[in-house]
Amino acid sequence: MLIRVQNLVKRYKEVLALDHLNLEVHEGEILGLLGPNGSGKTTAINCILSLLKYDKGSIEVFGSPMDPDSYESKRQIGIVSQNIALFDELKVEENVDYFCGLYVHDVATRLKLVNEAIEFVGLKEFRKFYPKKLSGGLKRRLNIACGIAHKPKLLILDEPTVAVDPQSRNSILEGLRTLNQQGTTIVYTSHYMEEVEQLCTRIIIMDRGKVLATGTKDELKAMINTGESVSVELFALPAEALAGVRQLPNVSAADYSQNRLTVRHVGGSHNLITLLDYLKSQGLSYGRVYSQQPTLNDVFLEITGRHLRDAEGM
Amino acid sequence: MFWHLFAYRLKCLLRNRGLIFWTLLFPLFMATLFHFAFGNLMTTGTFQPIKVAVVDNVAYRRDIGLQQMLSAISEPGDGQLLDLTITDPEQAAELLEERTVAGTILVSEQGVALEVKRSGLNQSVLKAVLDDYVQTASTVSQILQQNPNAAPELMAALQQRIHYTVEKNLSDAEPNIMLIMFYALIANTCLFGSSWGLKNSTDTQANLSDQGLRRSAAPTHKLRIILSDTLAALVITYSEVLILLGYLGLVLGVQLGNELGYILMIALLGSLTGVAWGTMFGTLFRQSEAVKGGIITVVNLTFSFFSGMMFADIKYIVDQAAPWFSYINPTALISDAFYSLYIFDSHERFFLNAGLLGVTAVVLSVVSYLGLRSERYASL
Amino acid sequence: MPVFKAYFKVLRAALPGIVSYMAIFLALSVVFTFAAPSSAGGQFTQSKIAMAVINRDGESPVATGLTDYLASTNKLVDLPDNPDQLQDALFFRRVEYVVIIPAGFEAGFLADDDVALERVAVPGSTSSHYVDHQVDKYLNTLRLHRQHGRTANWDELLSAVQKDLAKETPVQLQTASGTAETPGFIYYFGYLAYTLLAVVMLGISTIMLAFNKPDVQQRTACSPLSTRRVNLQLAVGHTLFAVTAWAILMAFAFIMYGKEMITSGGLGWVTLNSLAFTIVCASIGLLVGNLVRDHNTQSAAVNVLTLGMSFISGVFVPQSVLSPAVLSFAKFLPSYWYVRTHEAIHELVLSPLTNTMQIAGPLLIQLGFAAAIFAVTLLLSKERRVSMS
Asked: How remote is the C-alpha of B306 from its chain's centroid?
C-alpha cells in the first residue's frame, strides 16, 4: 500500500471540499482519479503531499504518516501539477536539472537522469530553449519531465493534459504506460474519461469530496444497470415479438419506434447474438445493427445523475 | 546541494532583465543625473566678486576716501570682494536693469547711496561695504571729538584693518548638503533588494505560485531553500550596491568618507534589510506579485523621499520634527549611516544607525522565515 | 469612431500613473507656494544669515558686545558647544556660519595680542564673507575706540561702537518696472516640464503600445477602416488627451496664481510655451510608443527620458549651475529650449524691457524639435508596416 487516506475532511469556510474521503493506492497500479472540476481531486492530492491543512483524518504514504518534513517519503514521489510549474528564466535542461536536483544530489547520476527525462518526453532538440519559446504541448511535456526525472516510485499527475494537442496527449499517455511497466505507481487525475479508460488499471470516481465508486473500468460498468445497448433496424415488429425480446436473458428494456428496435441489457455476454438469433427465429429480416458499450460517463450519470462534462467549471 | 540551489537561484534572478534594469541600471542612471545636476553645486568655494557699478560724477571724484576704500577691496586676489565698473549714469542704469551688476553706487551731496533691484545677499554685502565707510567716518569723528590729538596715529591705524577670523574645520568633511541625495540614492538601491526578496517569496510558497508548490513537495528542507534563495538575492543586491558605490566614489567623485570597512558593512546590512523586507512583504500578503511590487515601490520611494532623495532638506526636517520616523525608516538609517561616517569623527551615530538597521534586518528576516517555513497552507 | 472609443478605454490602463504624477506635482506646488516666504514689498531688507555664536570666553564685555551685534544683524541659532551637533547643523544649513570665541580672547584682545576667532562656515561662500566682514568691522571699531578714544568705561566704549555701527547707507530698491521677486507661477511652470513630459508621454505611449501589438494591428488592418482613418482617429485621440492634460495643469496654475499671471504680463507667454512643449511631449510619446514592445520597456523608457531630460536641461536645477559640457549636450534636447524660453519669460516678468525675440526664438526651436520627432516617428512606423507585410 503506497498511500492510505482515511476519513479525510477538508473545509474551505462554508464549502466541504473533502467529505470523509477514503482512498488507497496499491503498488504497481495506474490509479485514475476521475471527477468533475471541483470534485476534490486536486485538494486530495495536495493534502496527500502535505501542502494543505486538513480538518480531520489520517494520511499515510509508504506506510508512515505524511508530514511537511517527511523528506524520505517525498523523495520517492514525483508530482506533475495541474498548472505549469517551470522557471521562465531557466532553459529546458536547466529546469529539469534544477527540479531533479532537489531529489538527486549526485551530479553524475543527475546528468544521466536529466538526459533520460528529456529524451523520454521528446524535448531533445529543445534543450537550450527557454520555456517561453515552447508551444503549449511542449511546455506540458517539460512540466512532466521535471516531475519524473528523478525516477520516483510514486508519480502523481494532476490533469497533466489540459489544453494539450492530441499528438502530445498520446505521447504523454504512451510514456506513462512505459513508466508504469518500469515499475512506477501512478496516480492520475482527470475529468477526461476517455484518458482514464484508456490508461488506468483502477479508477476512483469522486464527486463533492467523496469517493462514489472504485474498481476497474469493467467492474465499474458492471456496477450499474446500464449495460450494452443494441439497436436494430426493422421494417416491422409485431407486438408479440417485442414481448418475446423483453423475455430474453439480461434484457432490461426494449422499445420499438420509427423502424428501430432498441434493447438495453444488464451485464451478461453474447447478448447481441442471442437477440439476432431470436429475431431470425421469428422470421424477421433486419437491416443495420448497432451495439454500444456503456462508458464511464454512463456510470457517472447513473451514480450522480449528472454528466461528467456538464459539471465542469463548478 | 546548497550550491545547486544557490547557483540556480542566482541564474534565475540574474536573467530577469526587468529587475536588473530597475535595481542596477536605474540607480546608476540616477547617480549620473545627480552628478550632472549637482556637480557644480558640490564644489564649494565659488565666491565670485560682486559686480557693482559706480556712477562716475563730480561727487564721486571728490570722495577720495570712498575711492580708496572701494579700490582696496576690488584688488584682484584672495580678499577681493567687489568687481567695480565706473561708468556714466546711463550705462550704470542699463547694467542694473540687465542685472549685470548687483547694484549701483551713487555719490551725491547727501552722501553715498546704493541702488538695487532686489533684496539679496550680494546686495547686502554691498550695503555692508558702504556702511563700513560711513561707520568708519563716524568712528573717526567720535574719536577726534574726544581726542583731537589722535589724528595722525588714528589715520595710520585705519590703514591696517585686522582680520579676526580664522578658518576652522570641525572635520575634514566638506559640509555639502547635496551629498544627502547621493546617500539617499545608495540607501534606495539597498532597498531595491526588496524586488529580489519579493520574487523569492513568490517562488517559495506553494500558495503563491506553481513553482513554489513544486519546491514545497520536494524533499528539500525549507530552510535550505530559503537560505539559498536569500543568499542569492543578497549577493546580487550587495553587488549592485557595491557597483553603485564604486561608480559614485571612483567615477563621479562623490565623497563617501575613508572608512572602507564600515562602508562595506553598512552596505551589506542595508542590502540584507532590503532583501528581507521584500521577502517579508511577499510572504505576508497573497496579492499578485505585480500588485505587491507596486506597493513596495511606493513605500520605498516614500522612505527615500523622507530621507532626502528628492529634497535634501526633508531629512533634517524629519530628524527635528519626528526623529522616531527616521529610526524606523530603513532608508533614513542607511543614508544617515553614510552621512555619519563621512561627517563625524566619532562613530556613535554610525553605530546607532547600524544597530537599528541590524535589528530591522533581523526582525524582517525572522518574520519572513516564520511565514515561509515548512507548513501546510490553509488554501492553495 | 470605433478606434477613438477604444482609445479612451486603453488609456484607463495608464490612468493610475497619470493621476499620481499630476497629484504629486500639484500637492508639492501647493506646499511650496504656501511655504515660500513672502517677500516684503517695496523695502530693501538686509540679508540675515542663520548663524551661531559659541562663546568659550565667559561673560566678557567683548564677547557679549560682539554677540549682541551679530544678533542684531543676523539670525542667531542656539547650538550647544558640541562638534557633532555643530557639524550636523552646518551640513543641513540650519546655520551657515558658526563663530567660536575662544577662552581668553578678551584678555588677548585687550593686550593687543594676535588673537583670532574660529569660524566654521562653508568655505568661500558669500555668506561667510558677509559675516566675516561684520565680525571684523565690530572688532576693528572696538579696537580703534579703545586704542585712540578716551572713553571712560566699558559701557561708554560699547555704546560708542554701537553708535558708529548704527550708521547706514540709504538703499533705493527700484521696482518701477517689473516685479522685484520671482512670482510663484514662474516656479510652477518651470517644474511643469517634468510633469507634462511624464504624463503626456506615459499616456500616448500606452495607447501606441496597445494599438501596435501585432495581432491588434493585423485585426485593424483587416477591418473596413482604412489605415488613414485609423491614424486620423488616433491623432484626434492623442490631441484631445494631450490638450486635456495641459488644460488641467493650466487650470491649476490659474487657480493658484491667476492674478499674478495676468498682472505680470507673463500669462500669454507661459501659455504658449507650455502648449508648445505639450506638442513636443506628444511627439516623444509617439516615438516611444512606436519603439517599445512591452510595458516593462515602456515604463523604463518613460522614466529614463523624463528624469534624464529634466535633470540635464535644467528643469530641477537652474541651467546656471549646470556645467558647460552638460549644457552643450542639453541643447540637443527640446526640454532645454523649453527652459530657455521659460527663463526668458522669467526675465520679461522681472523687467518688461526684455526683448521678446529671446522668448520667441527658443519657442520656435521647440516646435522644430516636435516636427523632426514626428517625422522620424512617421518614417519608423511606415518602415515597420512595410516589413510586416
From this structure: 12
Q: Give the span between the Cα atoms of B17 and B23, in whole angstroms.
A: 10
**For residue B274, which of B308, B315, B245, B241 has the smallest C-alpha distance?**
B241
C247: cell is: 488644460
Interchain proximity C322–B37, CB inside 8 Å? yes
- A314 — pLDDT class (breaks 50, 70, 90): very low
Closest-CA distance, B372 to chain A, in angstroms, reads 12
Question: Quick check: pTM over 0.90?
Answer: no
Report chain B residues whose CB lies below 8 A from the CB of A79: 214, 217
- ipTM exceeds 0.90: no
Q: Is the dihedral of CA C55, C57, C63, C64 positive or negative?
A: positive
DSSP-derived secondary structure letter, B107:
E
Return the higher-pLDDT residue of B249 and B1: B249
Residues 6+ apart with CB under 8 A from C353: B97, C177
Q: Which of B246 and A210 is assigned the larger pLDDT?
A: B246
* B119, B122, B173: residue with CB nearest C45: B119
Question: Which residues numbered 43-102 in A keep a CB inside 8 Å of some CB on B?
Answer: 46, 49-54, 68-69, 71-75, 77, 79, 81, 83-87, 89-90, 94, 97-99, 101-102
Helix (H, G, I), strand (E, B) or coil at C208: helix
Q: CA A263, CA C113: separation in Å to the nearest integer?
A: 132
**From C90, C92, C323, residue closest to B40, measured CB to CB:** C323
Q: CB–CB of B194/B277 below 8 Å?
A: yes
Q: How many CB contacts within 8 angstroms connect chain A with chain B?
A: 86
Q: How far is CA B76 from the centre of its chain?
A: 34
Mutate to test the interface with A, among B373, B376, B377, B380 (most CBs of A within 10 A): B376
Residues linked to residue A11 through DSSP beta bridges, in sequence order: A16
The mean predicted confidence, pLDDT, of chain C is 86
Query: C227: burial class by Cβ within 10 Å (0-12, 13-18, 19+)?
Result: exposed
Mean pLDDT over C37-47 rounds to 66
Rounded distance between C-alpha atoms, residue B216 and residue B373, angstroms: 10
Residues of B with Cβ-Cβ distance to C47 under 8 angstroms: 119-121, 123-124
What digits encode the pLDDT tens for the residues B323-374? 888 889 999 999 999 988 888 878 888 999 999 999 999 999 999 999 888 6
Among B129, B164, B295, B349, the strongest candidate for a mutation testing the C interface, having the largest count of C CBs within 10 A, is B164
Residue C57 makes CB contacts below 8 A (sequence gap 6+) with: C63, C101, C102, C103, C104, C105, C106
Residue C244 reports pLDDT greater than 70:
yes
Quote the CA–CA distance of B293 and B284 in Å, as a whole number. Answer: 13
- Given strand C97-101, what is the order of strands in its sheet? B165-167, C117-121, C97-101, C50-55, C75-76
Residue from C375, C361, C366 nearest C279 by CA? C366
Shortest CA distance to B354 belongs to which of B289, B267, B278, B293? Answer: B267
